[in-house]
Amino acid sequence: MPFYLSPKVFSNQAKVLVKHWPFKPIKISAARNLLSQLYGYKNDHHYRKVLMTAHATSLAPCSEEIVQSHYREWIQRFAKLGAMNEIQARQLMHMLWPAYLNPNYSLTTKMYHALFRFNGHCTDFLNDEIKNVEIKYDFDDTPAIGDAIQAMGIPHTEVGLIRVNDKNVDLNFRLNDGDKVSVYSSSAEYTNSNMPWKPNGELTFLLDVHLGGLARYLRMAGFNCLFENHDHGDSVLAEVASVGEYILLTRDKGLLKHSKVKYGRWVRAVKPIEQFREIVKHYHLADHFNPLSRCIKCNGTITTVKKEEIKTKVPKKVYVNNITFSQCAKCEQVYWQGGHFGKIQKILTDVKNRGL
Ligand SMILES: [Zn+2]
């Protein structure tokens, strides 16, 4: 040890630890052992033994300068020794050395920082002035990088690739001081995406209560699309999305940050037809249109029915003028070529041609 820690200071600090220990109560002997190891001794016995040597008293007492120069090192070591996080260790450190730390070291000032750069559509979530610059992110302890990204405003569902110091990492990577981070958006165009941003196989969608117009368009095109005209709340939507592997579509960025939501997109457009165009483009849906296979009203499947079966369910003129009729298996809504089909085909052809 390059400095001398007096028995009085040591003993007072052990009492502070016993009083403020954040877990199950500890004895004074355990507190003394912890402090000994924090300051570089093997244990309390070793500390006392060193104290008795002439060498100890010839050293300078532990000064403000020494405490401040060991600030980070001691907090990191203390966290490991006490099996606590660095935020807890830091609070205790300020209790051990109030006179030396409290004036200059605010507990609210973060200890570490990393530099983030967001790319592609991730920047849709950033204010203009920080869109194309490195953003300094201050933090304590070792947060998961996914939490840091979400704290900066980008839902994890929008992230396709994260690189830290030129290596690929996932959302659970623990951030370290000085890390340089590049975040890329999830999209079919960005072929290097290494995070699952859509399920394999057939895509199914879950829409929040504000996207009724988009739900109608997706159903017109034949996509399985859960939507109810009733607000079930964020946690129910997140749960349903996670259990059924649905892609959650919403205009609520906060909903996508829910940990249970695996796949989702913040719908940028405001008008339903523009939203439909956006989703078709983003998920490459144009080649999978299957019009009049799903009920626009209830998402049930539609099948062709014998004309006689729906005689009482459509206007007489419609019945006479049409040959082929389809019906929803769930709500019994009847569809026919002349009415709905023509309009739907026109909309879908237009989106196919203009959207891609
Ligand atoms: Zn129906």
From TrEMBL:
<dbReference type="InterPro" id="IPR002782">
    <property type="entry name" value="Mut7-C_RNAse_dom"/>
</dbReference>
<keyword id="KW-0694">RNA-binding</keyword>
<dbReference type="Pfam" id="PF01927">
    <property type="entry name" value="Mut7-C"/>
</dbReference>
<dbReference type="Pfam" id="PF14451">
    <property type="entry name" value="Ub-Mut7C"/>
</dbReference>
<feature type="domain" description="Mut7-C RNAse">
    <location>
        <begin position="205"/>
        <end position="347"/>
    </location>
</feature>
<protein>
    <recommendedName>
        <fullName>Mut7-C RNAse domain-containing protein</fullName>
    </recommendedName>
</protein>
<feature type="domain" description="Ubiquitin Mut7-C">
    <location>
        <begin position="113"/>
        <end position="187"/>
    </location>
</feature>
<dbReference type="GO" id="GO:0003723">
    <property type="term" value="F:RNA binding"/>
</dbReference>
<dbReference type="InterPro" id="IPR027798">
    <property type="entry name" value="Ub_Mut7C"/>
</dbReference>
